[in-house]
Amino acid sequence: MFDVVDRVLELAAARGARDVEAYAERGVSRRIKVYQGEVEQLVAARRCGVGVRVFRDGAVGYASTSDLGPEGLDDVVARAVAHAAAADADPFRTLPAPSGPPAAVEPYDPRLAAATDERRIDLALSVEAAALAADPRVKTVEDTVYVDGDGEVYLANSAGVRGSYRAGQCYAYAYVLAEDEGRVETGVSYAVGRALEELDGPACGAEAAARACRLLGARPCPSMKAAVVLDPFVAAAFLGVLSSALTAEAAQKGRSLFAGLEGQAVADPRLTLADDGAHPDGLDSAPFDGEGTPCRRTPLVSAGVLQGFLHDTYTARKAGAESTGNGQRGGYQSPPAVRPTNLLVEGEPVPFGTIVAGVDRGVLVTDAVGVHSGANPISGEFSVGISGVLIEHGRLTTPVREVTLAGDIIGMLKSVRALGDDARWVPAGSVLTPSVLIEGMAIGGT
After folding, report:
1. What is the maximal distance between C-alpha atoms in the chain?
2. Tally of CB atoms within 10 A around 322
3. Are 192 and 424 in contact (CB under 8 A)?
4. Which one in 79, 157, 194, 200 has a CA-CA gap of 20 to 30 Å to 283?
5. What DSSP character marks residue 169?
6. For residue range 178-213, what is the model confidence (pLDDT) as tens digits?
7. In CATH, what class is 2-212?
8. Entry pTM
């Protein structure tokens, strides 16, 4: 594949393009779905292609192709050059320059490629079997899925950036339906890792079943202003909305609730947020980003104070800063854009049982509907539907549903009172978060 990217640079130079970047990738992904003890779907897909960026006097042209033959490469370069000639100029759009050695992270486990389809199927079947065996009220497992991806990235530009790496990850997912007295509730769970050996299929299935059964008999609770405990799945969903507001692109466009608040308190001092593209266990870790900038840890909120924003090369030059290694790509078909890698929620952990015991009245939130559509990343206001379990006098009691949770994100961050000891990776993007206790939230019920 380095032959491909080098050929792209040569063809671009022959067309008079001096500032050129070539990003190539190849890989394979698999998806296995089982239902009632049988394989319902098995898909394997190969992906291979190259994307080309041409910079000319502040204008940028991009084109991509999966045809890596001589004619395909010549055509993709010609299109990128033509697009640059037609694009508007922006003085901050320039070719990324080399910025140091790649991060010392190995995002690939060779055991992933060594696994057979039989083992993948067995893992998925173990998830479904465990869910069905966990509780007689579990009537069906609507979705049991195993997914993995194994890919290689090759990047080079005419300024001297050059590198490659291989990355892989896998996960299992279960969506369970439990029924009792004609009422049906759902529960989900994930298991994530870089190799099958890191996935506990039976634990994933059993957890999904437990989450569904815990909600059986749920009903609305009275409206109140009370504490909520967001479990890791729900906390990760809120942080997914929050992360888009922590990019420099959003701040520079005036589309972030954090714009202009650098150096100010935006959360309780107990809370620290960071983006770490070089985390040894991060689902989206890599030695460098989609522009060749080394990935690294970037503090976002430290002891409650906003430290800054995530940058790619463009937003960094616009702000007079440096890239944080967050020029991420969705693949060779798209140019890089600034977005988080692995978002980490950190602080002094408190045992989950201790957190619940300290709540006189509140709700453990285990599901939130409409977080992305019901939360405004500009104003920070949100109103979402939730399900969970009522907390009364320090004990988990009755399940609740058809309840709303409303507030604003900064107010919520400033009301954080504890972080649990149950941190886990959640594939909502890639988030490592524990349960989060927040006081004084508006809960709308009966």
Report:
1. 75
2. 12
3. no
4. 157
5. E
6. 999 889 999 999 999 999 999 999 999 999 999 999
7. alpha beta
8. 0.94
